[in-house]
Amino acid sequence: MQTWRIGLLFVACASLFAHHGTNASYQLDKNMTISGTVTEFAFAYPHVQLYFDVKDDKGNIEHWASELPGTPVMLKSYNVGWSKTAIKPGDQVTLTCHPSKSPGSKVCLGEKLFINGKELPTGRNLGREEGQDK
Question: What is the pTM of this model?
Answer without folding.
Answer: 0.72
